[in-house]
Amino acid sequence: MKRKQFLLLLMVTGLVSAPVAANNSQNEKDSVVVGKVEGSERNVMLNASDATKPREIQIGLPSEDVNVYENGLPAVYSSAVHRLQYHWRSDASLGEVGLMSPSESAIRTGNIAYAVNSFSKLGQKEFKGVLNYQANHFGLQQFDVNVTGGIGSKWLYSGSVYQVFDPGSFDVKFDEYADRTQIYRAGLTRLFDNNRGKITLQYKYAYSRNHGNELNAAPFIYVGDGSIKEIPGFTPGLSSYGPKSGEIEYMDVMDGKMKTANLRDLADNRSHEVALLTDYTFDNGLKWTLNMKYMNAPEANYIDFGGSTISELDGTEGYTLDGQPYSGLVEGRRTWLHFGKVRNFLVTSELEQRLGNHRLRLGLNEWYYHLDYHSSSFQWTGTVQEYPEILLDKDGNRFRGFNELSPEYTVGYENKLALYLTDNWQITPKLNFYYGGRLEYYRMSADQIAHARYSGFHIGDVAPDGEVITPARVVKDKLNYAATAQLTYNITKQFGATADGTVATRFPRINEYAGTGPTEEQYKRVTIPLIRGGLFYKNSWLDLTSMVTYIAKTNNIDQQNLTKPGTTEGKTVLLIYDIQTLGWTTSAEITPFKGFHLHALFTYQKPVYKNYNASVTFSDGSEMGVNANNMIVKEIPQILVELDPSYNITKDLRLWLSFRYFGKTYANLQEALYFNGRWETFGGINWKANKYLDLGVSVVNFLNQKGAKGTISGSELITKEEAGKYAGCYMSGTYLRPFTVEFKMGINF
Description:
The protein is about 0% helix and about 55% strand. The protein has a 22-stranded antiparallel β-barrel. It has a four-stranded mixed β-sheet with strand order 2-1-4-3. A four-stranded antiparallel β-sheet has the order 11-10-39-38, with no helix packed on it. The longest helix has 10 residues, at about 5-10.
């Protein structure tokens, strides 16, 4: 069969694709520019919470996932089990990293969110290599190297190695490293004749052992005015709130057997990936790409730690340490051990063609995801100090409450088969219309255990109500859809208006069946509408966009652990609720003089809960409820500011800074506890010494802010009326990365 006939056969069968652009198609050279907020990278890898993954860009809704795409396909299908940072890093193997707008993401992936768009280096005819080295003053050693070259006139190769040895900002004790990750890639590319395109076969292996999930908490004193004070002898970010020994005991949720293990050995992740990447341009300008990959992660494991109320014992409660009655501060700690096996086969294909004033894109997704996952949980009581001691209870046990708090289980698959179309229509030189639609057939088949959890819960057990704990199969066949439309009008050469609307729908995903729900009555379509409108202005030194935005989400599913205030007792409930956000965003790219550039962004938003009600009955028979209707969504700030100035002192010497302000955020569900606004800061200087050597020094958190963020452990049921009595109390939560000095070197050869 001739090559053209083979390609046409693939297109007829539906596997059709176009090159994935880093920016929204509205931002192409021949179309109206509406501001770089949609397409610019916006320093997505500067993350003040975790150096191993991109930061989340706020859109007014809680994040469902970290959205990262590699060569037109999800880097990981879902981070719910197989975490992104265990399989993907922004390293020397990438040739381009950009940003996909929420509207474009909705059509091409079905999910409304800013998404990182990355592309591999596939090779070039001349040999080229790059070696990057990074270190910090805590002892980080990171290396990544990439080499590319040609074999004859038709073949290219690319290979890369990524290695990180990160001890973290404190001694983990039960492991040598807080993050030990290694990624290997190899690719071989065949060029088509007459520069028509290429086909690439790529292999990737990743191993990661990362303890960020269990060691990101710290105790502190909640002052009551949104600020915190450090506990004597404990500095958040520089002191560990994890135990010295990683030796633990747990009940396997699969069979009820008691097992011992070490936390170090329960965090292993391994994955293999094979990808085939193809692009071809026909005589009439029709562009086609077909990208597919198979990924197998036989170990997709991680550990979570949680907290509850910090209280003070007087020595009469029966807890002992080293054989003696213990008095002092304690916190009920919670641990979840997650074990997963993940496989997926993903295909994305597109056709792209310019027809007159239209640029059309027709695409298809065939994404298959298989998940074999379970988790076990247990509780323990620890002292409140650096490297807390695990106390023995009155029965002489170090661990208790086995599988009482939200152990999970599901085995099955989900499949998405979607067809989508976009058109970028330049109606007149001043008027542009971008629109698109997506129709997705979604099938899910998963085992679920809907029974409420209890102490001693495991598969095959007889529950207190007499029911045998047995998985049941749930099968769903549904249609999801997404649509978008954007109209942009240049009123003058420099000034214009733009408005767009996007809607995306989905049904509950397979990972949402790992807990107790949703039940058949709770199984509802999730709908996310996004509406925006505003003005833009552009001249030789200023690119300004100001927009009003409305976004909402119905039937959001959340599994919440609710703690009885003042105790360590918690119960798990399934919540289904709505969220809506109204906001105003102004973004500017400013270049007032040669060598200087400033990106500035201001956002005011008001995200609120709707239909948020839950109640729980504790062991003493007391019933408590939470009503968060019309209250501000926790962890999402109402005010956001980004300032990113940079200055080229010479053509080879660049100074840059990045300031991000997050306004007041609530730390519990009912607006009772909150954290004041905080600045996340980065800065550095980069020097291109010559064509072979690049040097850089950067600082993370150079204002040395040590505040807490996120949610305060055990505070879920605290109300506004009760907030005053918690001023001056000991609590725990997550924190910012500490002040860190980093050194970077790049060698080009």
